[in-house]
Amino acid sequence: MAEWKCAGLVLLVLATTMAIAEARTIIVGGSENWRYGYNYTDWALKNSPFFINDKLVFQYGPPHNVYLLPNLYSYLKCDFRGAALLAGPSNGAGNGFEVVLNQYRLYYFASSSDKDCSDGLMKFFAFPLPRWQ
Ligand SMILES: *[C@@H]1O[C@H](CO)[C@@H](O)[C@H](O)[C@H]1NC(C)=O
Predict the structure, then answer these.
(1) Buried b / exposed e across 59-90, counting CB within 10 Å, b at 16+?
(2) Any atom of ligand 1 within 6 Å of the Cβ of 48
(3) CATH (one of 2.40.160.210, 3.90.550.10, 2.60.40.420, 2.30.30.60) for 2-126
């Protein structure tokens, strides 16, 4: 019995370690970074699926930013009322701003500056999947 428990613990530790080891760091937009006019819906489709604990990196300059929108409606309408600012215009410099997808939820990302979201295609959503399925 004790042996069985021990084996279980080892497996659990192994699975956790593997999950951490496999987490990816993904630059949003790839070499295009986070900019006006690049289709991030398309980018997200091509880079899906995302997995739990994957790290998204937003690299950009002013006036862009990164907001988390509260729901599908606000996402479709580019309505920033009730949205949470994750990173301001100056936070995308250098290595950029990182978000770890560590919750099982829909993440609606968008930039709010001027028409970034409505005309500039600077929005996408991600739903991280479990790693060992
Ligand atoms: C952006 O990409 C999506 C998915 O490929 C596509 O459905 C949409 O029409 C594109 N938008 C524009 C404005 O090209």
Answers:
(1) bbeeebbbbebeeeebbeebbbeebeebbeee
(2) no
(3) 2.60.40.420
